Amino acid sequence: MGFSLSMEKFNNVMKELRRNNKVYGPKLLKNKGTFSDTDMVRYGEVNEIQDIEFNKKSFFSPKEVILPITQTLFYFTEDQVMEPKEEEKNILIFLRSCDIHATKRLDQVYLKNGFEDPYYKKLREKVKFILMECENSFENCFCVSMGSNKTEDYSMFVRRQGDKVFVECKDEELSHMFEGLEEKVVTPKFIEKNELEVKIPEGLNIEIFKADIWKEYSSRCIACGRCNTVCGTCACFTMQDIFYKDNDNVGERRRVWASCQIDGFTSMAGGHEFRKNKGDRMRFKVMHKVYDFNKRFGYHMCVGCGRCDDACPEYISFSHCVNKLNSAVKEGK
């Protein structure tokens, strides 16, 4: 079911949607970029379609909506434990095909990995996707190589074209918002080719751990962890207990994003730490994205959004690393 409507009418729809939903989308944040006088696109709550940035890739993935950077799991006092009040509203997220695929990877880790994470599940059950299309492939994207350039897993599709908005609604619970509007055939267009092509090596096994290709990253990587924080599929976290100043027996336990690339991630009791070498950390990350996860679940963890390449201050390219890995496997090194 498709519709054509003006931006004013679509904003009226958005207003109705926000009665029972929190609506998130990529927003252009002026002068909030890494460097002086640069902008950043990042996810936040949106009120109208003009708030949504359709033409630029977001720096962070929409992962932070359903898996917050820091999340309070419970509060504790001397004699009781309380969970935070649950948000009553549902969640609608404007996002691209690769990010919908990335959420599938998070679902696999948190809901289908032998245990259901109750905190993730509470948020995830509230979420519906509003698909945004990519008119052109963005820099560093290789979604076609990873098979994440197309999806049918969305409740609505929205295209903004000039002062017109075209909508495809597949969700019966949302379709009543468009009753009486002009009907039109609306279907999303998907990227068929990226400038960047990545070849996942065939016959990959743990013998590649000994390859020389990992050595260059020992000197290049600075262990900042940006690649993990912007990634839509990285799911690691650490726990923090926060004790309040007024009473050090009262506080809260938080779940906080963690990075396999930073110092201390593998620290163990007694002071032992493995993968101290940054090349070993790069190897661990790459092999997890294109080997370990696939071996267990039957599809690759990486979705080819290219955000890790965008974010790295040392210009380390994940995609180029995978292609080097492919060459090393072919050459038997």
Overall description:
- With 333 residues, the protein is of the alpha/beta class.
- The chain has two domains: 2-70 and 82-178, no CATH class; 206-331, no CATH class.
- 29% of the residues lie in helices and 20% in strands.
- It has helices spanning 7-20, 63-66, 97-111, 118-124, 143-146, 172-175, 216-220, 226-230, 278-297, 307-311, 318-331, and strands at residues 2-6, 21-29, 40-45, 70-76, 81-82, 90-95, 127-131, 156-161, 164-169, 237-243, 251-257.
- A seven-stranded mixed beta sheet has the order 1-9-8-7-6-2-3. The protein has a four-stranded antiparallel beta sheet with strand order 5-4-11-10, with no helix packed on it.
- A hairpin with a 7-residue loop joins strand 10 and strand 11 (251-257).
- The chain is globular.
- The mean pLDDT is 93.
